[in-house]
Amino acid sequence: MFRYLIRRILWAILLFIIITFVTFVIFFMGPNDPARAQCGGDQARPACLKLVTEHYGLNKPLYVQYWRFFDRLVVHQNLGYSYANGSSVNQTIAKAAPVTASLVFGGAVIWMMIALSLGVYSALRPRSLLDRTAMVFVLIGISAHPVWIGLIFEYVFGVKLGWTPIANYANFFGAPAGSGLPGGPWQWFYHMILPWFTFALLFAALYVRMVRANVMETLNEDFVRTARAKGAPERRILVSHVLRNALLPVVTMLGMDIGVALGGAVFTETVYQLPGLGQNLVVGIQANDFATVQGVVVFATVAILLFNLIVDVLYAWIDPRIRLA
Amino acid sequence: MAQRDEKIVVSAGAGGLGAAIASESGTELGSMEEIKARGYWELVWRRFRRDKVAIGSGVFIILLIFFAFGAAPIVKDMVGHGPNDLFLYAPAVNLAGLPANPMTHVHNPNTGHSDLLVLGAANRLGQDELLRLMYGARISLEVAILSTLGVMFIGVILGSAAGYFRGWTDTIISRVTEITMAFPVLIFVISLAATVGPQLDNITLGVFPQGVITLVLIFSLFGWFYPARIMRAQVLSIREKEYVEAARMVGASDSRIIRSHVLPHLVAPMIVYSTLIVASYVLFEAGLSFLGVGIKFNASWGNLLSSAVDYYTTRPLLMLWPGLALMLTTLAFNLLGDGLRDAFDPRASHM
Fold this sequence. Notes:
heterodimer, A: mainly alpha, 2 domains, 13 helices, 77% helix, 0% strand, B: 351 residues, MetI-like fold
């Protein structure tokens, strides 16, 4: 276990270095001159340009600049300052991350609820009406664009039926004083229902398919027949023989896919105007504020790396087969 | 149907044993039906043909290609304006900035004629929704198919090299694959499209609209690892088969073994996988264009969706068309891919 842990952490560190380097190069190659952006765009005075260039070392070679970036990131945990308004990117991210986290984890709960109920039931009753409905759901889920689903939900549930708010976020711990915004747990839940379902749909569809296939496969296993032959009640067979074995790979996949799904949050946040990481990314791109964009990319990537590391270690701890492989 | 499948293939005058005996003896043996073995592709085609859903999807895709590349210029000539032409004044755009409803006649200042906006205007610029949908189909297909080709090209070469040669080739390629997989693809695709996109947009190779090549390059860069892994696994199992061993024993070179014993077995998984990822690149392109980092000025389904957001309470039809087009296209490629998989490998379960 200890050796596995060390190996896994070293690999994560290597990935961190490579990914930050690639990120740095991507933004280094970008069309934006950071000095010009900080000095007010096209009307920048030469004196200001010179000062900023010297200050940030923008005339130094790539590897020196990367080293400065890496040093700032690792030693000072500083993601820099926005080109657009000079605000700290760290603060922007601190405000945005809880929004994205509530979207992603809430959405994951919903997608697992849909996937488990639909997947298990349709596997137990193949070719029934419910099974066929589940197949249609799967096909629509993997084919419809999340943005479009979001817009349709907004239009039907928000505008036509008036059941839910059409956009914006409500803070779980109450709105900032004097802002006049809705806040508190109930408002948070109320504002997040549509985004959660929109976010969950694609993965729910993929997982219904996977759960169904796994459960059907496990139902044909010898140990299930043995349990039946020994006269175990059907309920017990399902819960402790079938589901236990069928769902372990699903849980493993969930850990890997939450990181992937974080990218999909960009679309949900844009459609519902949730001030999360994804929206900051898009707004930053539109405003040519590449300091913020870079900060969001680095933060999201590191979050995913860490998350995957924790998930991997947890699995190795639960299931010894993994760490011995 | 079953009866037809059982039908024995008659080959008249093929010079087989039956014909030889017939000419010699002159008896009724000459009318004996000759039985021919069915080839691999014929079997696949027979299984595929029975799958009505997959056939329907295939027909839909062919129609879509015709619609995008053949019909779009014809419709453009019929209505008298192009997909990017602006109609900035009433009635194409009313005083509140709302785009025109379907079947609105507008005055075209370039030709002096009165033009018809069949599906209304797409946005505040008064561009023709129908034409933009048709030209959007073109962009979607171009980006999705070219990206798939790019991804498969890199993936197949790297994957089969890693699987065939093993050793240090495999180690290097597998490590690079693992590193690429650790990147959150969507976030990196978005930031690459935003930073280097504007510099690449001018590459059009003379045929493609602006931005298509950009997206194809970016998608290929971040998409090859998955086919590479699939191909590596396939090749690893193929290279241990007896016929490969036999070929090596009689002295066939590596390139000959790869060409005539390994690659033919990769065709089926390549076709199935390509069909399925075309669907995901259609969605990807629309997503990037929706965020404003994909196709910028030209029509694309993602652009149409993003302009529909401004009017979704007043002109809900504007978000219906591109969304429906996207869903049907993706659905068709997904169903065709499923059908092809079943046809190539009948043992694999449908779901």
